[in-house]
C-alpha cells in the first residue's frame, strides 16, 4: 500500500505535502463554483475531520453565519447556523483572538452551542481564516480517540489559509442586480432576476412576472425536486447551494444550467433570502482529476448513513472513472462475503458460484471457495491481476480482462472487500492504483461507521415498535384501525404515536400525538407520554385534566423536546365526544351522508411549552356511521403544501371513501403520502350500541341507615328494570358488603352505580381512598370482620378495582337468571 501511495506523491511522504498538492490543485481553478466545498473536503481527507464548516460575517456584521459545510450534517453535533460575533462560541473566540482553538469533550460539555443528540464524544477545532470577503472561521469536528494530532492540525491550518469565501452578487450603482444574479425572498417567493438569467430561460424582461413559480414551470419536471430543496429550504439548511438542472427549449434538447446560491438568514423582522447566480452549465464543466474523485468520495462517504449508502457511494465513485464492467462491494462476516451492492445487479452477469449462493437480492458467497480472495484479505492490501492471470473461476469470471480486489480495512481488521472487473484487457496506471488504494481506506472506515449507525437505528426502531400498541381493542358499538409509516427521508425514527384506551361506562379515549424531532430521545419520550396519558385516563380524569397532567409531567422532565397531542373522549352509548387539542391538527369527521368537516375544536399550546396552559374541551356530535379521523402532520403537511391545504385534501379523500371497510379507507388515505416525516393515522367508525345499558346512581350519605338506604335504592331500581325477586338477594348482599366496606374503611363521598346489560348486572362502589381491598388468606371462626370481599367473590361472576379521580371504584358483576 505504501508503494502505491508513494507513486502518487512522488516521494513527498508526509500528509502535509499531500495536502499542499491537493490544495494547489483546487486553487488552480479559482472560478470553480464548488471551490470552497472542495477545499473543505480536504479536511475530511487529510485533517481527520468528519465535518468541516466555514462561518463568516453575514449581512448583519454582528452575526457569523454558515457559508459552506462538508461531511456529516452539522445538526448531528448540535452546531448552529449562526453565532453572535460577541458571544462565547468557539467560532467567535477564534475570530476575535486570531488564534486557533482546540476543544475536547470536557471543554465542550458545558457549551450549549455544541450539544449533540448522540452519546459519543467528539473534538472541535476552530481556526481563523482570511477569505476574499474578510475574516471568518474554519470549524472542524473529529470523533477519533485523542482528537486532532499534530499532522491533523498542520493540515487544518493549511486548509484555513486556503479558504476563500465566494463573493455574493453585488448590486450595481443603480441598485439593480448583475445580469447573471438573482435574489429570492423566502417568505413570498418573489424573485429578482438579471437579464442574462431570463435569456437562459427564454424570457424577456417584460414577460417575467417576478414569481419563482414561473421559472420553475419552465424546468424539466424530473429536476424539480432538487430545485424545490433550494426554493423551500428551511433554517437548518443555511449555507451555499450548487446544483445543475435543465430548462425546456422551444426546439431541441433541454439546456443544462448551473445554480450557485447562498441561503442567508433574516434578521430584525427581515425574511431569509437566497442570492446567487445562474449560468450555462456547458461553460462551467471541467475535467475531474483522480484527486478530486477521492475527495468527492470522502465527502459522499462522510454523509452516508447505512451500509447500503456506503456501498452505493463507492460504486458510483469508481464505476465511471475506471470504466469497469463489473463492480461488487461486500462485507466480511466470519468466513462469508455478504454482498451489499452489485453493478450490474442481474445474476447472469456474475460467476456460477455467485448465482448458486444467491440469497434474496444479493449473493452470500463463502470466502473459502475463493482462496485468492482470502489471501488478499489476509495481506490487507490492494491486489491487481491483469488479463490472463490464473485465478479460480469465481474470480476469473468477474474480470476476464483484469481484476482488482480492494480489502477494506477499519479498526485494525478487514471489514469487507470491493471487487472490480473488466471484460476487455485493462491497463492499470499509477494514478489508477492510487485511486483504488485511497478509496479502499475511505470505504473501510465508512463501512465500520455505517455498521454502528445501522445497529443504532435498528435498536431505536425496535424500541419504537415496542412502544406502539400491538393491536387495538374491540370496542362496543365502534371499530378502530390505525396505521404508522416511518419516514423514508432519513434513518432516524420519530415520535409519532397513537392509542385507543377503553374507559369505564363504555367510554373510549382516542389519542394521537407527535414528539418533536427524529431520534432515540424522541421515541423514548413518545413512549413515556403515551404511558402517562393512558395512566391519567385510567384514573378517571376528564379529557382536559388528562392533557393538563401530561403537560405538567413533560415540563417536570426538563427535556428540550415538546409534543403535540389530540385527545378525544367518546361516549359510545350516547354518541357524544369531547375533544382536547394541544398544538395538534383537529379531528376530521365523515358523516353518514358522506359529507366531511374539520372539527372546530379549540386548541392549547403543545405539551412541554407552558406550565400554566389552558386546554379547553370542545364537543363533537356523532351519529351512527360517523368516522373520526386523527392524524399527525406528516400526512397533511409537506414542503409544497401547508397544513390547511393538507387537511382539506384529507377531508375530500375521506368523503370519497367507503366507511364499511375501515382498513381499506386507512390504506387509501396513505397512498401517495409524502414520506419526509413520520405518519400516524387513527380512524374510528361509530356504529352505535345495539343494546344500551340501563344505569342508575346513588350518593351514599354517611348516616347510621346508609346501608339500608343503599339496599332500598337497589331494590327499587331492580324492580323498575324487571329483575325477578329471586335474583335480588345476591345483588343486595353484594351492595351491602361493598357499601359497608367503603363507609368503614374510607372517608369522604361514597357513590353507588348500577348497570344492567344483557342480563349482566354490574354493581360498583366508588370512594375517595386509593387503597385497594385485599382478600384475606384465612379467617378464624372467632373473627368479627374480613368476610366482605369473600362474600362478594362468592356471589359475583367476577370482581375487581379500578382507579378513579382521587380514589378507587370496587366493582362486581352478577349474572342474573343463573
UniProtKB/TrEMBL annotation:
<dbReference type="Pfam" id="PF08447">
    <property type="entry name" value="PAS_3"/>
</dbReference>
<keyword id="KW-0378">Hydrolase</keyword>
<dbReference type="InterPro" id="IPR003594">
    <property type="entry name" value="HATPase_dom"/>
</dbReference>
<dbReference type="InterPro" id="IPR036457">
    <property type="entry name" value="PPM-type-like_dom_sf"/>
</dbReference>
<dbReference type="InterPro" id="IPR003018">
    <property type="entry name" value="GAF"/>
</dbReference>
<dbReference type="InterPro" id="IPR029016">
    <property type="entry name" value="GAF-like_dom_sf"/>
</dbReference>
<dbReference type="Pfam" id="PF07228">
    <property type="entry name" value="SpoIIE"/>
</dbReference>
<protein>
    <submittedName>
        <fullName>SpoIIE family protein phosphatase</fullName>
    </submittedName>
</protein>
<dbReference type="InterPro" id="IPR036890">
    <property type="entry name" value="HATPase_C_sf"/>
</dbReference>
<dbReference type="Pfam" id="PF13581">
    <property type="entry name" value="HATPase_c_2"/>
</dbReference>
<dbReference type="InterPro" id="IPR052016">
    <property type="entry name" value="Bact_Sigma-Reg"/>
</dbReference>
<feature type="domain" description="PAC">
    <location>
        <begin position="241"/>
        <end position="293"/>
    </location>
</feature>
<dbReference type="InterPro" id="IPR001932">
    <property type="entry name" value="PPM-type_phosphatase-like_dom"/>
</dbReference>
<dbReference type="InterPro" id="IPR000700">
    <property type="entry name" value="PAS-assoc_C"/>
</dbReference>
<dbReference type="InterPro" id="IPR035965">
    <property type="entry name" value="PAS-like_dom_sf"/>
</dbReference>
<dbReference type="InterPro" id="IPR013655">
    <property type="entry name" value="PAS_fold_3"/>
</dbReference>
Amino acid at each position: 500500500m505504501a508503494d502505491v501511495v508513494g507513486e502518487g506523491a512522488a516521494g513527498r511522504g508526509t500528509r502535509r505535502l499531500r495536502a499542499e498538492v491537493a490544495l494547489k490543485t483546487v486553487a488552480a481553478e479559482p472560478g470553480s463554483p464548488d471551490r470552497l466545498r472542495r477545499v473543505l473536503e480536504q479536511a475530511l481527507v487529510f485533517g481527520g475531520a468528519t465535518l468541516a464548516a466555514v462561518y463568516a460575517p453575514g449581512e448583519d456584521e454582528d452575526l457569523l453565519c454558515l457559508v459552506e459545510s462538508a461531511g456529516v450534517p452539522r445538526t448531528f453535533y448540535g452546531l448552529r447556523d449562526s453565532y453572535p460575533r460577541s458571544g462565547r462560541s468557539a467560532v467567535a473566540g477564534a475570530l476575535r483572538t486570531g488564534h486557533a482553538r482546540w476543544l475536547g469533550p470536557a471543554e465542550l460539555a458545558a457549551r450549549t452551542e455544541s450539544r449533540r443528540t448522540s452519546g459519543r464524544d467528539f473534538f472541535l477545532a476552530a481556526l481563523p481564516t482570511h477569505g476574499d470577503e474578510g475574516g471568518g472561521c474554519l470549524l472542524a469536528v473529529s470523533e477519533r480517540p485523542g482528537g486532532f494530532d499534530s499532522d491533523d492540525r498542520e493540515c487544518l491550518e493549511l486548509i484555513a489559509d486556503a479558504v476563500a469565501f465566494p463573493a455574493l452578487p453585488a448590486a450595481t450603482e443603480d441598485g439593480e442586480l448583475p445580469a447573471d444574479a438573482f435574489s429570492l425572498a423566502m417568505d413570498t417567493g418573489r424573485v429578482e432576476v438579471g437579464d442574462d438569467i431570463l435569456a437562459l430561460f427564454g424570457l424577456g424582461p417584460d414577460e417575467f412576472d417576478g414569481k419563482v413559480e414561473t421559472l420553475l414551470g419552465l424546468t424539466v419536471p424530473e429536476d424539480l425536486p432538487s430545485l424545490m430543496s433550494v426554493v423551500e429550504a428551511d433554517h437548518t439548511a443555511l449555507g451555499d447551494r450548487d446544483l445543475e438542472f435543465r430548462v425546456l427549449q422551444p426546439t431541441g434538447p433541454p439546456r443544462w444550467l448551473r445554480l450557485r446560491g447562498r441561503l442567508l438568514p433574516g434578521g430584525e423582522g427581515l425574511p431569509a433570502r437566497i442570492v446567487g447566480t445562474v449560468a450555462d452549465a456547458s461553460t462551467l464543466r471541467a475535467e475531474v482529476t483522480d484527486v478530486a474523485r477521492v475527495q468527492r468520495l470522502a465527502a459522499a462517504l462522510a454523509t452516508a448513513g447505512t451500509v447500503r449508502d456506503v456501498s452505493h457511494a463507492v460504486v458510483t465513485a469508481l464505476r465511471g472513472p475506471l470504466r469497469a464492467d463489473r463492480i461488487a462491494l461486500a462485507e466480511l462476516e466470519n468466513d462469508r462475503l455478504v454482498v451489499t451492492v452489485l453493478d450490474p445487479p442481474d445474476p447472469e452477469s456474475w460467476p456460477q458460484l455467485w448465482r448458486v449462493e444467491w440469497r434474496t437480492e444479493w449473493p452470500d458467497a463463502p470466502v473459502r471457495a475463493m482462496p485468492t480472495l482470502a489471501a488478499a484479505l489476509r495481506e490487507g492490501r490492494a491486489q491487481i491481476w491483469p488479463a490472463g492471470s490464473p485465478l479460480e473461476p469465481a474470480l476469473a469470471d468477474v474480470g476476464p480482462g483484469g481484476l482488482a480486489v480492494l480489502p477494506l480495512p477499519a479498526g485494525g481488521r478487514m471489514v469487507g472487500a470491493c471487487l472490480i472487473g473488466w471484460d476487455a484487457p485493462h491497463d492499470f496506471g499509477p494514478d489508477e492504483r492510487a485511486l483504488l488504494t485511497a478509496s479502499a481506506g475511505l470505504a473501510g472506515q465508512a463501512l465500520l461507521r455505517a455498521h454502528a449507525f445501522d445497529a443504532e437505528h435498528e435498536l431505536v426502531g425496535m424500541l419504537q415498535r415496542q412502544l406502539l400498541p400491538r393491536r387495538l381493542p374491540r370496542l362496543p358499538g365502534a371499530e378502530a384501525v390505525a396505521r404508522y409509516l416511518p419516514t423514508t427521508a432519513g434513518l432516524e425514527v420519530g415520535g409519532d404515536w397513537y392509542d385507543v384506551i377503553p374507559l369505564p361506562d363504555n367510554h373510549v379515549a382516542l389519542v394521537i400525538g407527535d414528539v418533536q424531532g427524529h431520534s432515540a430521545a424522541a421515541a423514548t419520550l413518545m413512549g413515556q407520554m403515551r404511558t402517562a396519558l393512558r395512566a391519567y385516563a385510567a384514573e378517571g380524569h376528564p379529557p382536559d385534566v388528562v392533557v393538563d397532567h401530561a403537560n405538567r409531567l413533560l415540563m417536570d422532565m426538563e427535556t428540550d423536546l415538546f409534543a403535540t397531542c389530540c385527545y378525544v373522549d367518546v361516549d359510545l352509548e350516547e354518541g357524544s365526544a369531547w375533544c382536547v387539542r394541544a398544538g395538534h391538527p383537529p379531528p376530521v369527521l365523515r358523516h353518514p351522508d358522506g359529507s366531511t368537516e374539520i372539527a372546530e375544536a379549540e386548541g392549547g399550546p403543545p405539551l412541554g411549552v407552558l406550565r400554566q396552559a389552558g386546554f379547553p374541551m370542545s364537543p363533537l356530535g356523532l351519529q351512527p356511521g360517523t368516522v373520526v379521523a386523527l392524524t399527525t402532520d406528516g400526512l397533511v403537511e409537506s414542503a409544497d403544501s401547508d397544513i390547511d391545504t393538507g387537511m382539506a385534501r384529507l377531508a375530500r379523500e375521506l368523503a370519497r371513501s367507503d366507511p364499511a371497510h375501515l382498513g381499506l379507507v386507512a390504506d387509501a388515505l396513505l397512498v401517495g403520502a409524502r414520506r419526509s416525516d413520520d405518519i400516524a393515522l387513527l380512524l374510528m367508525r361509530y356504529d352505535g350500541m345495539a343494546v344500551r345499558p340501563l344505569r342508575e346512581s346513588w350518593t351514599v350519605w354517611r348516616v347510621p341507615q346508609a346501608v339500608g338506604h343503599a339496599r332500598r335504592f337497589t331494590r327499587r331500581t331492580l324492580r323498575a328494570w324487571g329483575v325477578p325477586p329471586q335474583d335480588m338477594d345476591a345483588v343486595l348482599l353484594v351492595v351491602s358488603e361493598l357499601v359497608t366496606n367503603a363507609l368503614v374503611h374510607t372517608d369522604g363521598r361514597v357513590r353507588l352505580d348500577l348497570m344492567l346489560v344483557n342480563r349482566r348486572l354490574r354493581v360498583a362502589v366508588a370512594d375517595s381512598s386509593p387503597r385497594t381491598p385485599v382478600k384475606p388468606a384465612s379467617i378464624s371462626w372467632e373473627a368479627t370482620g374480613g368476610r366482605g370481599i369473600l362474600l362478594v367473590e362468592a356471589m359475583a361472576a367476577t370482581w375487581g378495582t379500578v382507579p378513579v379521580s382521587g380514589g378507587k371504584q370496587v366493582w362486581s358483576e352478577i349474572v342474573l337468571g343463573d
